[in-house]
Write a structure and sequence with these properties.
The chain has about 200 residues and is mainly beta. Helix content is about 0%, strand content about 45%.
Length: about 200
């Protein structure tokens, strides 16, 4: 049960190893593809089942920075981004702080109880939040897209329903100056500019 392919750097260190079954990337008891930096440190690990990225008990794809810190973790189920109990994609800054968190269900951006995409500044402050339902920008009880300045003040808010800009009781697009004052407002209904 060894790798079917092994590539080497000129210095003799292993560059990558790939496990295959019936011509497809596959391994039951560990990652089916492992890449290494030239110095021998692990660069990435990918779990495959029958040629598709898949792992039951953790991320199916893990990438590492040269310093050994995790760069990103992706959860796949039968080749599609999917995770039940947290974000399916997590990106990290080199210092280890979280940069992005993305929730997916069956390969589509989706989250029931909060934003499906959250981005962070390197200092840990939230940079943006986007709400998705079944792959479409959507939120019932507030703006579906919010971005923040580094100081924590809101940069913009956009309301969406079923993937289109829409709001019944106010502007769908509000952009702010860094000091918190409103820069401009737009009204949309069912994806078209409209105000009664």
């Amino acid at each position: 049960d060894g790798p079917a392919t092994i590539a080497y750097y000129e210095n003799g260190n292993v560059k990558y190893e790939i496990w295959n079954k019936n011509g497809e990337a596959h391994r039951e008891d560990g990652p089916a593809r492992i890449e290494y930096y030239e110095n021998g440190n692990v660069r990435s690990k990918n779990w495959y089942k029958n040629g598709k990225e898949h792992r039951k008990d953790g991320p199916a794809e893990i990438r590492y920075y040269r310093n050994g810190n995790v760069g990103h973790e992706y959860w796949y189920k039968n080749g599609k981004l999917d995770r039940e109990d947290g974000p399916a994609r997590i990106e990290y800054y080199e210092n280890g702080n979280v940069e992005y968190e993305y929730w997916y269900k069956n390969g589509k951006s989706h989250r029931e109880d909060g934003p499906a995409e959250i981005g962070y500044y390197e200092n840990g402050n939230v940079e943006y939040e986007y709400w998705y339902k079944n792959g479409e920008v959507y939120r019932e009880d507030g703006p579906a897209s919010i971005a923040y300045y580094k100081n924590g003040n809101k940069e913009y808010e956009y309301w969406y329903k079923n993937g289109e800009r829409h709001r019944e009781d106010g502007p769908t697009s509000i952009r702010y100056y860094g000091n918190g004052n409103v820069k401009y407002e737009y009204w949309y209904k069912n994806g078209e500019r409209h105000r009664e």
